[in-house]
Amino acid sequence: MKADWVQFATGLAALAAGAAAEELFPKAGGAGFPFLLMAAVYFAARRERKAALVFAVAAGAFEDSLSSLPFATSISFFALAALFVAYTGFVKSAFAFAFPLYQIWLRMWCSELDGSIATRFLVAFPAGILAALGAIALLGWLERKGALDER
Asked: Residue 2 — very low, low, confident or very high, per pLDDT cuts 50/70/90?
């Protein structure tokens, strides 16, 4: 029971920190750093499927509201990415390719985005990998401080 509350608090802290980081970090070519997406992938690899899906939906809702995207644009992609990781276990592939694929997803649903799709796609690879490294480091530290791995 205590672990559930710690996981809930960790998820809330990750949502708040990820949303703040996405707003504060610079954007290049129309694409920023996908901290919320990488946190959703991270939690999908480390939590049970139901908890990971709830976190991914919440992170997608934060992303939609921060970016003024149409309803459920990010929610649906974040949920699909979390389910992909939860069912296949391809965590490293998801960390590497989630953000570039997200740029294609956004272009399919929103035609009036800043920057061309080619620029956003090319910027997405390094930005996604840097955000993934940051999410792994920060969320791993947060889990150790919260003692989530103790039995």
From this structure: low
Q: Which residue has the tokens 């959703």?
A: 40
Give the predicted TM-score (pTM) of the model.
0.89
| Mean pLDDT, residues 125-129 taken together | 92
Distance of alpha carbon 112 from alpha carbon 149, whole angstroms: 44
Beta-bridge partners for 28: 31
**Cα 95 to Cα 48: distance, rounded to the nearest angstrom:** 18
CA nearest 42: which of 66, 7, 5? 7
40 burial via Cβ count (<10 Å: 0-12, 13-18, 19+) = buried
**Number of CB atoms found within 10 A of residue 24's CB:** 9
DSSP for 21-40, written as a single string: HHHHS--BTTB---HHHHHH
Mean of per-residue pLDDT scores for the chain: 88
Q: Give the whole-angstrom CA distance, residue 56 versus residue 58.
A: 5
CB 42 within 8 A of CB 139: yes
